[in-house]
Amino acid sequence: MLRISKLTDYGTVILAHLASQPDRQLAAAEVAERTHIALPTVSKLLKTLQRSGLVISTRGSHGGYQLAQPAAEITAAKILDALEGPFAITECSGQHSNCGIESNCRVGHAWQRVNGAIRRALNDVTLAQLAGIERSSSTSIPLTRITRATHE
């Protein structure tokens, strides 16, 4: 089953909270209180998000965390890459494949097409849409769009 981890889900909730207050720097404790996620988990995720360049932090009594760029410019793909690593549904779908049977495999190319379609869909969804700040242009991606895109 394709499923993001609980930490990635929490990371997205944290990013959505930061997106809801783009002009403020929020302390980890405040984020934890507002999102109902334990402070150690919030702190860990904020550090990971900072290392990945999605959030910036300022030290000091008036410091805190905020998004490094507008929520409309942060895609679901960037979030997943930051929290889980590059998305790949099979070994051969990733950038650096280590599959021992890739040269003799008949299904790898099809899985790579599926992976590409999912990646494009993740790039089409922004943090602003995830946070409900901006409405998505559609609630689903038509299958014809995915099919066409995978053949290009």
Order of helices and strands: HHHEEHHHH
Write down the overall geometry.
elongated
Helix coverage percent: 40-55%
* Low-confidence sequence ranges: 146-152
Q: In order across it, which strands form the biggest sheet?
A: 1-2
Give the termini separation: 27 Å
Average predicted confidence as pLDDT: 86
Tell me the β content. Answer: 5-15%
The radius of gyration computed from the alpha-carbon positions, rounded to a whole number of angstroms, is: 18 Å
Structural class: mainly alpha
Q: Helix tally?
A: 7
Q: What's the total count of β strands?
A: 2
Largest sheet: 2 strands, antiparallel
Structural overview:
Mean pLDDT is 86; it is low at 146-152. The chain is elongated. It has a two-stranded antiparallel ribbon. The longest helix is centred in the C-terminal third of the chain and has 17 residues, at 108-124. The chain is mainly alpha-helical and 152 residues long. The chain is built from 7 helices and 2 strands. 49% of the residues lie in helices and 5% in strands.
